[in-house]
Amino acid sequence: MRYLLQPENTSTLSWLFEKNANPSVIPEFPEDGKSELVMAYLLNGVCYAEVLNGPAHLNQTCAGKFPFGRLFFHIPQQDVFDVCADFKNYRGLP
Q1: Which of 11, 31, 71, 75 is the Cys-Cys partner for 23 at CB 3.0 to 4.6 Å?
Q2: Contacts 24+ apart (CB under 8 A), 44-50
Q3: In Å, what is the CA distance from 71 to each residue of 32, 41, 85?
Q4: Given a cut of 90, is residue 51 above it in pLDDT?
Q5: Which helix (H) or strand (E) holds 80?
Q6: What is the pLDDT of residue 87?
Q7: Which one-letter DSSP state was computed for residue 7?
Q8: pLDDT tens, 4-35?
């Protein structure tokens, strides 16, 4: 399942930079347990942001290749939950 972020009243890219102004080009999962790894990419001129729920999901999403042209953000879990109900449900939260 894919967990796409859908912030209201702002662009996805603006929302991501508001939450984390220093994204990385290298996908590293947060170790703090309070953040999620979010991958952003452009497709047909539109920015999409997807929560990656583990290394297997990262490998599947990037087809086992280095993810050129993508930015990776560490976003606080609550902020992710606020814009992605499906991911909140995946984590089993009300």
Answers
A1: 71
A2: 47/11, 47/12, 47/13, 47/16, 48/4, 48/12, 49/4, 49/5, 49/12, 49/13, 49/15, 49/16, 49/73, 50/2, 50/3, 50/4, 50/5
A3: 20, 7, 22
A4: yes
A5: helix 77-83
A6: 82
A7: -
A8: 999 999 999 999 999 999 999 999 999 988 99
pLDDT at 67 over 80: no
Q: Which residues lie across from 71 on neighbouring strands?
A: 40
Which uninterrupted H or E stretch holds 49?
Answer: strand 46-52
Do residues 72 and 28 make contact, with C-beta atoms less than 8 angstroms apart? yes
What letter represents residue 78's amino acid? Q
pTM for the full predicted model: 0.89
